Amino acid sequence: MMDKMMDRESYETFRDGLRRLAGARIEPNAARFDSEARFPEESLHAFKELGLVSLAFPENDGGQGGDVLSQVIALEELGRVCATSSLTLMVIWAGLVPISKHGSQKLRDEVIRPAMSGDTVASICLTEPAGGSNLFGLKTKAEKQADGWVLNGQKRYITNATRSDWYTVLARTGEKTLGLFAVHKDDSGLVLGAREKKMGIKGSPTADVTFENCRIPAHRAIGDPNQGHRYITDSLTWTRALIGGQALGIAQGALDQAVKYTSEREQFGETLSRFQMVRAKIADMATKVEAGRALLYSACAAIDNGSADARALASMAKLFCSDSAMEVTTEAVQLHGGSGYLADFPVERMMRDAKITQIYEGVNEIQRLIIAKHVYDRAGAR
């Protein structure tokens, strides 16, 4: 579908193809995914059409070797019409990429290569009932035994749970060490909780995942079982940029809907788009979207280039794009008037979907702490 490195024109061609796919295959089902709280199986089939699952994986694992910007563009265009579908793809990547990067050849052959066909769903299991941002506070344990590992503990708010084939689990392997482990849905001792009832992204299943003496073979430890914290910290820099893409897509979709509605709706003998206050709101919304896009794409370049600023830029992008998504979708509802409060119009769903982007993968308050630390550290270095 694409080369690893593309010029600007190629990125736009890639975007155009995704936009057509999203408009034809995903947007028509988006409202039903939400109203029926149904997993977006149709979107999963659409992903296969363009090989989107393989986009985030290296060629030696059967993937396309797409850079971070191409991944962000994909999530942006999906999020523009359906946040649930964008999240589904993003979490498949989040669950499987650590295996691809750090897993043994045996584990990659077992998990990653079959997943490149686009039929595999995955989850990443970090958060626990006692908290999410403090990774060293987690209580789930993995104990080494002669024939493998035994996991015990409980994970909370796990995306794609009840539908995933593979669960990538962060667990304590020692008093001060963490490891990552690949657990299959059929492994003995894996227990799935009831689906949560949520404000938004309702088509994406969220549930507890509990491990009760869950036994897995030794090769399912992902890389060094004492380096899980480092693996996840590196992964979070990348996934926060991905969430920035999802949030930016939601904001762009809401802006598009607001422009369409205000161009068609008439009051006092002229369309709403002729009113100065409406134009001022649209201008502010468009500015937030474009500013977010510039910051996000800068973060993507920093990640791909291995820049020391990548972690802070990813946090900035996640913070700004998600806050902007909340602001833009709220204004889009306002510009729709009473219609915006009805489920008949997409902006109502978009506003509910936008909220989670300020919360998951590190609440925005945590992003501000990461950014501030980076700023102070850099000032101290000078």
Would you write up a description of this structure?
Pfam families: Acyl-CoA_dh_1 (PF00441), Acyl-CoA_dh_M (PF02770), Acyl-CoA_dh_N (PF02771). Its EC number is 1.-.-.-. This protein has 382 residues and is an alpha+beta fold. The chain has helices at 8-35, 41-50, 68-79, 83-102, 105-115, 228-264, 276-305, 310-335, 346-357, 364-381; strands at 122-125, 141-145, 148-159, 166-172, 178-184, 190-192, 206-216, 266-267, 270-271. It folds into three domains: 8-115, Orthogonal Bundle (Butyryl-Coa Dehydrogenase, subunit A, domain 1); 122-228, Butyryl-CoA Dehydrogenase, subunit A, domain 2, CATH 2.40.110; 230-381, Butyryl-CoA Dehydrogenase, subunit A, domain 3 (Up-down Bundle), CATH 1.20.140. It contains ten helices and nine strands. The strands form three sheets. The chain has a four-stranded antiparallel beta sheet with strand order 2-3-7-6, with helices on one face. A three-stranded mixed beta sheet has the order 1-4-5, covered by helices on one side. A two-stranded antiparallel ribbon has the order 8-9.
CATH superfamily of the largest domain: Butyryl-CoA Dehydrogenase, subunit A, domain 3
Give unreliable regions as ranges.
none
Number of domains: 3
> Whole-Å distance between the termini?
45 Å
The CATH topology of the largest domain: Butyryl-CoA Dehydrogenase, subunit A, domain 3
Q: What's the CATH C level of the largest domain?
A: Mainly Alpha
Whole-number mean pLDDT: 95
Q: Helix and strand succession? A: HHHHHEEEEEEEHEEHHHH
Helix share bin: 40-55%
Number of helices: 10
Biggest sheet, in brief?
4 strands, antiparallel
EC number: 1.-.-.-
Pfam families: Acyl-CoA_dh_1, Acyl-CoA_dh_M, Acyl-CoA_dh_N
Family: Belongs to the acyl-CoA dehydrogenase family.
Enzyme class: oxidoreductase
